[in-house]
Structure formats: structure tokens, C-alpha cells
Amino acid sequence: MTAIRVLIADDQMMVRQGFTVLLNAEPGIEVVGQAVDGVDAVEKVAELDPDVVLMDIRMPRLGGIEATRTITGRDGATVKVLVLTTFDLDEYVYEALRAGASGFLLKDASADELAHAVRVVAAGEALLAPNITKRLIAEFARVSAAPRPPAKGRTGDLTERETEVLSLIAQGLSNTEIAVRLVVAEQTVKTHVGRILLKLGLRDRTQAAVHAYETGLVRPTGY
Fold first, then answer.
1. Which strand ranges, in their side-by-side order, compose the sheet holding 80-85?
2. Sign of the torsion formed by the C-alpha atoms of 116, 209, 59 and 31
3. What is the C-alpha separation between 87 and 22, in angstroms, rounded?
């Protein structure tokens, strides 16, 4: 099995070195490089072609949000970005996800949590803790009081069941939880998710959730 290639972007040398040691000790994960700021991260992604970037948000020259937007916005980009935060209510987490990040990770995460996070986003899943998902929904409700109408041709092609699955993704449910809710096999849910991403031209579940709220296809309730 090919190892998951990881690039660590953080302006603090201790963080870069610490994460490098932890991840290189994990089977199936290899740190292929380090970047000292956003500009360096963009250049290293082009040079090293990693599968996952651990991206600090606050860095000199170019911040993590803009670096994430540049990296994930390239044609044919498959690299996944996992933003690093100090606090789980970091005000920039929302913007980082909108910029194309696949999830977030606290800097004080354990070795097991770090390795799990890398594997999850590398597999195309979203990494959002329930409390963060709830906060994001609240934030979408705040900034999208008058959501844009769904883009014709991008959301109209979804079937009724796919729209239902997308709604549950946006609520932060896993494939297993969606399968239980809809009383279907988990593989069936995976098939629906794959079709949703293909039809909407999205990279992963996180971007599907962002798309659902920002287009008004799914409307936040209770906030």
C-alpha cells in the first residue's frame, strides 16, 4: 500500500518537527516536506505533490486561508488540506473550510488523533467534530440569511434521495449514521455521496456541506 504523503505548513519550527516525528512513526504515513509559510506551502505542494497538507492558519507572507484557496483551486487538484488551530472555536475555521479545507485539527492533538485525521481526509472524508459542525451551521445561518438560489444545472440534477443525503451530510452525519437514518446499507450511502460530489463538481463531504448551505439547497434551522 502506498503511504499517505504529508506536507506540514507552520511557521513554528517546533510544531513542524514535532508533527513530523509523530507522523513518520505511523505506518502508512510519510512526511515528505515542511513549509515555513503560505507561499512556501504553495510552492512545496507543486513540487512534492503531497496527499494531505497540515496547514497553520496564521503565517507570515501568505496566511493559511489564502494558501488553502490557492492550493485547492488549481485545476485537477486532489490534495486535501487539514487546517491547524489552537482553539476549537477559532474564528478562521469557517473561512478555511470555505476556502477548500477538508477539516480542522487542534495543535494539541495526540499522536493517534493526528494520524486518524490525516487518514480521514486522505480518504476524502470530512473531519468536523460535532460541536464544530453545529457552530458552522449557526455561522452559515448568520451569513446566509438570504441564500442564493441554487445554481441551475448544479443542484437541480440531484435526485430526491441524493438531496436528502446531502442534507444529512450538511448536518454532520457520517455514512454510518446516514445509513441508519435512511434504513439503507452503508454502501448505498457511499454510492449516493459519490454521485453527489460528481454532479456538483465537489472534492469532498466538507465542500458538499458548504455548497448545501451557501446555495440554499439546505437551510439552517433552529438558529
1. 29-35, 4-9, 52-56, 80-85, 103-106
2. positive
3. 21
CA distances from 14 to 6, 33, 135 (A): 17, 14, 30
Q: What pTM value is reported for the model?
A: 0.70
Name the amino acid, one letter, at 101: A
- What is the model's pLDDT at position 30? 94
Cell numbers found for residue 112: 493517534
- Taking CA atoms, 139 is separated from 104, 105, 145, in Å, by 16, 19, 10
Q: Which H/E stretch holds residue 54?
A: strand 52-56
Residue pair 120/186 in contact by the 8 Å Cβ criterion: no
Amino acid at residue number 24? N
Dihedral over Cα of 14, 108, 92, 178: its sign: positive
pLDDT digits (tens, 9 = 90+) for 124-179: 776 665 555 556 656 655 655 444 444 444 556 889 899 899 988 887 778 888 99
Angstrom distance (rounded) from CA 205 to CA 193: 8
Contact 71, 42 (CB under 8 A): yes
H helices of 49-82, in order, are: 64-72
Whether residue 196 contacts residue 211, with contact meaning beta carbons closer than 8 Å, is answered with no
